[in-house]
Amino acid sequence: MKSIVEHTIPPIYNKNSKILILGSIPSPKSREQAFYYAHPQNRFWPVLSALLRCDLPKTNQEKTDFLLENRIALWDVLKSCSIEGADDSSISEPAMNDLTPILQTAKLRAVFTTGGKAASFYRSAWLPTISLPFIPLPSTSPANRGRYPMERLLDEYRVILPFLQES
Question: Which residue is catalytic, options 16, 42, 70, 97?
Answer without folding.
Answer: 42
